[in-house]
Amino acid sequence: MTSEDNFSEELEAHLTRNGFIWGPEPEIYDSLAGFYTYGPMGKLLKNKLEDKMSRVFKQEKFYEVEAPIIMPEEVWDASGHLETFVDPMVLCSECEGSYRADKLIEEDYDVVADGFSDEELLEFIDDQDITCPSCGGEFEQDIHDYNLMMETRVAGRESYSRPETATTTYLPFKRYWRFFRKKLPIKVFQIGKAFRNEISPRQHVLRGREFTQAEGQIFVTEEMKHDWDGYDRIRDEEVRLWSAEEQEKEGSPVTMSLEEAVDSGEVTSEGYAWSLYLAWELFRSVGIPEDRMRFREHQEDEKAHYAEDAWDLEVELDSFGWTECCGVHDRGDYDLSQHTEHSPEDLSFKDNHGKEVMPHILEIAFGTDRPTFALLDIFFDEEEERLQIPTHVAPVDVAVFPLVTKDGLPDIAEEVYRQLHERRFDVEYDDSGSIGKRYARQDAKGTALCVTVDYDTKEDDTVTLRERDTSDQVRLNIEDLDGAVQTYLYGDAELRELGEPVE
Ligand SMILES: [Zn+2]
Fold first, then answer.
1. Residue 2: is its pLDDT beyond 80?
2. Dihedral of the CA atoms 199, 202, 206, 212 (nearest 10)?
3. 404-424 average pLDDT score
4. Distance of CA 12 from the midpoint of ligand 1 (Å)
5. How far is ligand 1, taken at its centre, from the CA of residue 376, in Å?
6. Where are the CATH 3.40.50.800 domain residues in the chain?
7. pLDDT digit string (tens) for 3-49?
8. How far apart are CA 376 and CA 41, in angstroms?
9. What spacing in Å lies between the alpha carbon of 207 and ligand 1's midpoint?
10. Rounded to the nearest whole angstrom, what is the distance from the C-alpha of residue 198 to the centroid of ligand 1?
């Protein structure tokens, strides 16, 4: 595990300067750790990721829903969050600073402390002489249970902001049941804000107190998981799996097909294997390189007691090493059973034979802050100060420049800007500074293409199209611009196929 120190000041400064991520906010007051603003470029990038990801979900026939962020206490009592959504906290005996014990260990030592008991945490801190990161003082010999949910009162009722979207997605099960005409599997997803009152938020937007979650939930029967509709399509897909057993003996992840994973018993069911595939595809679709992805199986002591299978998709970041970015869980019938027990509603249904069935839930749980950060981290070229983000998710698709701000060139450039904008590209207009400066500015933001309107444009309606990574340029007709940009970003076309090369 890499330590926090690899998060370079250069990257952070670059993200701030170029309008990606600002904070922690409020910057002009005394800032509160774990809260960030996505500036104009950051928001464009994050939107693009969320859009791609919802397209992947929809392609797999999921429907999007939006549930409330705040729910009353009884919901969190039933879900188990009140009791178990706690982090182990240690206090510094000198400065009274509070730290999350397991993360304190994991950041400096190559261990997974997530599943450590309180005794094991204290023992490790003691054995390794871990001291307070801010003052060097010793920690108190006590682990405090610290609940991560943010409390509020609504109409006199104790309530909490959701710490994940999941629970709020499960609750309307009866409504889904009727809407989806009493037929499983039911596939829904949510992308929305969730809140965790982290003890010590660190690692920039990776562990914020407010973040955007994206979760897909599939309601199924036990039998369906073992005879999965759509399994044939994905059985040959390969993923990298790092099983609990391999981790135990310090082995490496193994690349295997999902069919091999099911047949060897590495994963428990076809439906679960399909969920792994979906997680892999979600991250691949936004441009995370496959050689930086792996699934890590939960160790027995990390796994929730009801979980039938649990693996995390991890992404290798330059700043923080292998980082958990998505959890894929077979939650069994835990959730709907809990809400059936605690609410007046029975969430089971009767099958064709009149048998009562409590649906199981397969879940792909992630957020959009981490993959957004991952793209910025992985594709930042520090030397050239540019972002080589895959062009299909570049924050700005195309920038438009008039060569000079006179002789009618701005009017034509404005027209080109509008034309591209109408075709739903993310476009930026820039008319200040030399063309070289403008190119550099766009490279820093990761803009895929730049269009320059010059004096020749007035004569023959052609413009220059320049690509980011090679700085190569071609000349083409304004009429063909939309199509060219489209095929460049989303097809396989190379720049030189789109016009006359410019020497
Ligand atoms: Zn201290």
1. no
2. 40
3. 97
4. 26
5. 33
6. 396-501
7. 445 788 899 999 999 999 999 999 999 999 999 999 999 999 999 99
8. 11
9. 21
10. 18
**Secondary structure (3-state) at 96:** coil
CATH architecture of the domain 396-501 equals 3-Layer(aba) Sandwich (3.40)
Å from CA of 445 to ligand 1 middle: 39
Ligand 1 centroid – CA 94 distance (Å)? 5
Give pLDDT, residue 421. Answer: 97
Neighbours of 269 (CB within 10 A): 22
DSSP classification of residue 498 = S
Q: What is the mean pLDDT of residues 381-409?
A: 96
pLDDT digits over 110-125, tens only? 888 888 999 999 999 9
Give residue 85 CA to ligand 1 midpoint distance, Å: 25
Cα(101) to centroid(ligand 1), Å: 14
Q: Quick one: tokens of 196?
A: 């965790």
Is the pLDDT at 392 greater than 90? The verdict is: yes
Return the amino acid letter for 28: I
Domain 4-70+163-378 fold is: BirA Bifunctional Protein; domain 2 (3.30.930)
How many whole angstroms from 130 Cα to the centroid of ligand 1? 11
CA of 133 to the centre of ligand 1 (A): 7
**CA 196: distance to chain centroid?**
16
**Whole-number Å distance between alpha carbons of 37 and 22:** 5
What distance in Å separates the CA atoms of residue 269 and residue 331, rounded to the nearest whole number?
Answer: 13
Q: In the prediction, which pLDDT does 228 show?
A: 97
Ligand 1 mean position, distance from CA 365 (Å):
35
**Average of per-residue pLDDT across 407-430:** 97
Query: Rounded mean pLDDT of the chain?
Result: 95
Residues making up the chain, counted from first to last: 503
Burial of 168 by CB count in 10 Å (0-12 exposed, 13-18 middle, 19+ buried)? buried
